[in-house]
Structure formats: structure tokens, C-alpha cells
Amino acid sequence: MNSDFTLARKVFDVKPPIPLIGHVAFGIIDRGTNLLQIRPTTLCPLSCIFCSVDAGPRTRWRATEYVVGDVDYLLAWFEWAVERKGLGKVHAYIDAAGDPLTYPHIVELVAKLREMPFVETIAMETHGALLTEELAEELDEAGLDRLNLSLDALDPELARTLSGAPWFDVRRVIEVAEYVISSLHMDLLVAPVWVPGVNDAEIPKIIEWTLNVGAGKRWPPLGIQKYELHKYGRKLKGVKPMSWRAFYSALRKWEEQYGVKLVLTPRDFDIVKAKRVPIVFRRFEKVGLKIVGPGWLKGQWLATARGRVVAVVGVEGDPPVGQSVSAIVLRVKDGIYVAHVS
Ligand code: SF4
Asked: Could you tell me if the ipTM is greater than 0.95?
């Protein structure tokens, strides 16, 4: 297996005093519900040909990979967000603009979340390339409640093509997934990305396999994802995303055929609206930012202000770390901030 997930890119350890809220690629993301996303790393061993975040060794846009090396610092920000939201109970969802299993402290992260009395459930998403029986056992013992496994094809050749990694062996992922569901406490949710014209024939097979192995002990067993185009995501030549109407109509047909719920809502995961972590910038506001590190994508820097981290776009060269710049806030969505030097 290729264990160099970074190739030519730098890995930046996001450390104190850089706040862990405000950036899409790392830290805590609050989308105004009782679920908080925890993003410990941007690294990924695969380079899926449909990847919406252009992750992995074959990335085109990334300049830096981020890792929050200090798990306690990450958890301190998680707790901070829970307090600001005034939540008595919260769902912790470990995901990434990469694969969370690349995080060296992933078991410790789950174990420490489990010790927090206000954490109701802990789920994690992965493509499973780095999953072994031993790691699955460790995560289970640490208290992981659900693994969301993106499994896009059962056919090994097609799965390899989709993964963009010639060493990827989906048969291993299937073996471990079957072990998880037969021998561990945690639940499994199978979440294929349906790429129209590429893995259409695989989706019914994945549904059948998922039902046969008994996934979905506590939550729905499947969460089929629609292929979408993203500005910095990988686009497949000649593949047009399906309309939402056609997508849901196919899911409803399979729901009838297989007697399984496929059209999911936040309620299936007990997700409800909740107060947000305070938003500290307004769109088009002029702000002073302090540059603290390299940008995630080419032409970006990392900056901070008002207790938040901000992605600065449209810049060139090395970041002038420690210097202040004035900028215009371009984007304020779900507490994620993007600014342009003015
Ligand atoms: S889709 Fe997931 S596993 Fe595949 S390259 Fe992107 S982040 Fe990595």
C-alpha cells in the first residue's frame, strides 16, 4: 500500500493558539443542529475519482494538509462549542475532508469523547482503506457507536478504479465490514456514492449485501449519496449529476423492492435544530486578520481574528506569518469564514 498520503504537500500541525472553529477543513463544524462535526485531519490514502474535496495523493488544488495533532486541544474546542450552543446532549460525528482513519489518535479521540457525559452518540465516516479487524475492535472498545462506510462498488476492479488507488482492495474492506457487523457492538451504515453511468449496477448489489450482512442494527442500514459537482472537487468527464427528482425516485423504487428505508431525514439520526455557536463576522465586512499559517488550497493563507480561524483566498506566495492584513469577508456559512485581502 502507498503509505505516503501527502507526496509533495506539507503537513501543518494546527496548534494552540489557532482556534479550531471557522475553517471547513479542520476542527469543529456547527451547522445549527445537535450534531457537531469533528475534523481531525485532511489526509487521505485514496484519490477517489469523484472526490468532492479533491483529497489524496492525486490532489490538484491542495497546497497543505492539516492535522490537529493534540487530541485534547481538539476536544477542548468541541466542549467549547457544546457549551456555546447550550446543549445538554450532543451527537459527535467524526468526519474529514479526507479520511478520519489517517488520524494517528483516532482511538484516543473516540475514547475521550465517550468519557464526556454530554456525548450521546459517536459516529465516524470512512472509506475503509485503512480499516483492519484490530482497529475496528479498538474503536468498538473505545465506544464508537456507528461506522459510516462509503462502499461504492463490490466489484474489485470497479472499486479500484473509483478509488483512484491501484493498491485498493475492496474485498478486504468487505471482510472487515462483515466482521464489524457480526462480532462488534457498533452499528454499520453503508454509504455508497452513486456516480451515474459508472456504478449504477453496483447499487442494488450493495443494498442486497448490506441487508444480508445485517447492517442497521440501530440506525438505517444505508445512506446512498448522490454524486455532485463541487468547485474544487474531482469531476468525471461526461458524467452529469442526476437531478434530485430522479435520484429520489430511484431510491423509492428500491425501497419498495427491498423493503428498506433509503430516503433518509435528519430525524432518522435524532438530529434536530439547535442554537448556533455565535457568528462573529458579517458578509462583506472589512476586518483585520492575523496570518498564522499556510492555506489549505493553492492561493490561500490561514488567518485568525475574533477567536475564529479564517481562510484567506486570492493570495500568492508564502504566508507572511505573524503579520496583520486587512480583508473583506466573502463567505459566512455555518460558521465557516472565507475572506479576501482588501
Ligand atoms: S472520497 Fe473520501 S476516501 Fe475518497 S479521496 Fe475523497 S476523502 Fe478520500
From this structure: yes
